Amino acid sequence: MNTVRSALFVPGSRPERFAKALASGADVVIVDFEDAVEPPLKQQARDNLAAFLHATPQASVWVRVNAPQHQEHAADLTFCAQQPGVSGLLLPKVESATQVAVAWHAGKPVWPIIESARGLLALAEIAAAAGVERLSFGSLDLALDLNLNTESAAARQVLDQARMAVQLHSRGAALAPPLDGVFPAIADTDGLQRAMRHAYDMGYGGALCIHPRQVPVIHAALAPSAEELAWARSVIAASEAANGAGAFQLDGQMVDAPVVLRAQRLLGQQMS
User: Is the pTM of this model over 0.85?
Assistant: First the structure.
C-alpha cells in the first residue's frame, strides 16, 4: 500500500478545479460527491468527473461517494465501478461491515470514515471487512454526533480517545496507517501544523484536507524533525558498532531491538 500523507478534497461540482487539485502535490485527490455537492448537482458531479476522466485518461482520483443511507449512494457506486480512473472509494458515515461490503462490490479499495458513535462501536468489524485498505477519522461529524462542546478540553480528550481507537483497530487489522480528519481553518497554518504533529505522534499516517495550501504544511509536519533524524542516525551507528549485541547503552539510555526499529523507520520516512 502506498504512503498517503495528504488526501485533498475537490468538489465534484467544480470540474475546473480537478486538474489544479491533481497538480497540488497531494498524495491522493478525492473528488467529493457528498458534503461539498448540493443535492440538485449530484448527477452533474458524476457527469463532470466522467468527462474529465475521459479527457484525461492518465488521471487517477478517489471519490467520496454519498453515504450508504443517501439516495444517490447506489448510483455513485455504479459510476465508480465503471470508471478505471477512479482508484478507490472514500466511504462516509460507515456504521457496519455490511455497508463496506456493498461498496466493495464496486471493485475498488475502500477507506471508511469513522464519524459516528455507531461507527466507533462497530470499529472491529469495519476494520476487518474485505476491501478496506485504511480507515479515516471524521472528527467534525463525530463531535456533532456525540454533542461535544467543540474546542473544549473535554471534547479534545474524547476525540483523542476515538482517534486512538481508530489507530488501534487499524493496527489490529493490519491496515495502512489511518488518515486524520480535515482541519477546517484554512488560513491557520500553525494550527494545522500542530494538529498534524499531534496526529503523527498518535501513529496517523496523514490527513484529509480541503485546500491545496494545506498540502505542503501537512507534508512538512509529518516529516521527521532534524533532531529525530540525528537521534536515529546515532542509534543506527551505535547498533552497527555493537556488533549484534541485543541491548546496549547510548547516551545513558538502553537501546534494544524496538528502539533500533524505530530509528530505521524514521530514516525510512526521510527517504519516502
Answer: yes
